[in-house]
Each structure stands twice: as C-alpha cells, then as structure tokens.
User: Fold this.
Amino acid sequence: MEYFEVKGEKIPKLGFGTYDIAPADTKQAVKQALKLGYRLIDTAQYYRNEAQVGEAVRESDVKREDIFITTKAMTDGYEATKLGIEESLQKAGLSYFDLMIIHWPMEDSLGTYRAMAEAYHEGKLHHIGLSNFNINQTKEIMANSDVKPLLDQIETHLNLQQGKMHEFLTREGIIHESYSPLMEDAPAILKHPVLQKIGRKYGKTGVQVMLRFLTQEDIMVIPRSVNPKHMQENFEIFDFTLTPAEVAEIKELDKRQPIDGWPATMRVDE
Assistant:
C-alpha cells in the first residue's frame, strides 16, 4: 500500500467505494474489503448505506483507528448540515468520521462547509473536504474558512485525467481523489493496445494498469466491486511501477470526456 502523509498521518491512496452497492449487500462487501486489506472505506448520505458500513467496521477484527472512513454531506447550509452530521454519526454508530466532504456544490456551500468545520474543531470529523468542486469554487471555500480541505473528490479516469485540476490541487496541497476510476468498467478502454501491452509486461490486467497509473500520479482511487476476485485484483497494484514512457503513453489516452454530461456549474477542470 502507498499513502499520502498529512501532518504525520498516513492516508491510503487506495480505498473501497460503496457507491451503488445496495444497503443489503454493503455490510458483507465492506467486511470482505477489510479482510483483504483495504483500510479506506468511502460512503455517503446519498448512498443510504452509512449504517451498514458502520456495522461492518464494528464487527471487523481491524481496529477502528486503523480504518479511514469517508462520508459525504448532501445537505445545503449550516443548520441542515449540523443535523446531517449528527444523523450520519448516529446511523453509522461511530463517534467520528475520518473525513466528511460536501458531495456537490450547493446554493449555500459556505454554510455547509462552516458546519463541517465546526464539527472538525469538535473532533467529530477528523478531516473535511470537497467533491465536484472546480477551481474557483474551491478557492471560495478556502478564502472563507480556517480549515483547509483535505481533498477534492472528482471524476477522474483515463478518458478524463483532470490535468489542470490536478495541477491546481497539487499546488494547493489538496489531495486529488478520483471517483469512477474505472469509468464504470468501460470495456472499450480495457481493450486498448497500450493497456494490453503494459499489462502483458507486468502480468497485470488493464484495470490494474489503470489504477496503478492514477495512484502513481498521486491520485487517490476508490474502485467499487462486490466480486471478491475483482476486489482482490484492485488491491494488488503496488507491486509494479510504470516507467516514465509508459506514463506518457497512458496520458495520451486522455479525451477530456466525462462519463455523463455534467452541468456547467459542476465542471471541475475550470
């Protein structure tokens, strides 16, 4: 495993995503992920599975302090977010979240972030951050709070590598986190000759090459799967290193093409 180091704390570059995993399946999936070695679990109020993530963590043999749990606020404004934080903690059965992020820009994102910053100072949230925020939106948050966002979680994959946003986040000391790192398991890209060639060289799948490219570029990834075999393969990406030439080849695959047509207000590479 590789890590980001933030004020002496090690935060995994690879985590387990729970988006679109049914609540009934979440507990077992998270328990399996923890058993395989995952130590970062990503959930959200919107996913409706915070409770099951909490159950899996409590029933795991892994110590709570060794697991980094992220959730996302879907509330708008200070008061709603204060209530939402308490509700999420209660649902998950946890005394704190390692990270809470604003799921997407809201009408009152500053109020939302202020409530999260307050919970951070109270110890209920160990870190706070953003998701789907572009450069200007991120700057506005930073200019109006004494708590710097830990990260910005944005759609990032081979077809949308977010070069401009990555440069900005790196310059500001904010972690760039990718969601949909596998493009929803897009089969076409996996057949690309570049990925196949590199995969053969290292004895890895196209998926593993994609995940290794992102983590090697200092981008956090949270692939999702309920298939134990795929979960294991997604985890086994730190035993090889792409050469500078291979990285350059993969960068040439960038089409600046998102999976869905996001509205202008949620375009992050601006």
The chain has a mean pLDDT of 94. The beta strands are 3-6, 9-12, 16-17, 40-42, 68-73, 99-102, 128-131, 151-155, 175-179, 219-221. The CA atoms of residues 105 and 133 lie 6 Å apart.
